[in-house]
Request: fold
Amino acid sequence: MLTTFAQVPPGFTVRSSAVAMTFPAGEAHIKADAAAAETPLYLYLTGADANEYMSAAMWIDHAHQGGHKVSALIPYLPGARQDRGNPFGAQVYANLINAMKADEVVCFDPHSPVMPALVHNLRIVSPEAVIGRAVKKALSGYAGVICPDEGAKSRTAITAEALGLPLFHAAKHRDFATGKLSGFTCDELPSEGRFLVVDDICDGGGTFMGLAAATGLGPDRLDLWVSHGVFSGNAAQLTQAYGTVYTTDSHPGAANPAVGATITPLISHLI
Reply:
């Protein structure tokens, strides 16, 4: 989803009057009101729809032609999980973002260091402060943070320290012959208190269901934070294992009603 913002006299920030449109032949364009007195500021782009990225590029060009500098707030970097292999999706999407020519690009809790290194003029917003605010009411009941796998070690260590909680580790195990997951293990957990599982992305939720089973705990003692809630496929099953699922509005899938996640809006954390 693409939303653009501008400043109007006497200093209010509003949605830009220059709006995306599509010509009958299929080309993206921006329809601007020549009489509108506004200063383009930033755009907020969620999800991975390439058509919206094209519209965003048009809006940025519109802003630049008016002599303005603008930021592209792109909390969910599309292609960030495609950070290896052929095709090299992270590079392809980074090329698309770079071609937009934003004066600044802002992302939130990227999947790995690979794609951020490919995006020009990038500023990264880390998740621990946002997580702290999201779980503030429940924080006193938590006995620890659970790291779901090797890839989340750095993210969860920083989060646990920021929340003042101990960190426990889980692991995914694969059958080397097939590459398929063969099971999960988890550190022994205290007998009382709730635990917050922290990771960057949730798609169908299978990994988090396997982790929940490995802990031996139920939704009365487990909550889940994912920075980017795609919540596709069987993600509704998460409600069987986690009392509260926390996420942000970085991806349209976050609003999947079958998951019923508690959603934190990100714009105020990014601008």
In short: The two ends are 17 Å apart (CA to CA). The chain has a mean pLDDT of 93. The chain has two domains: 2-125, 128-265.
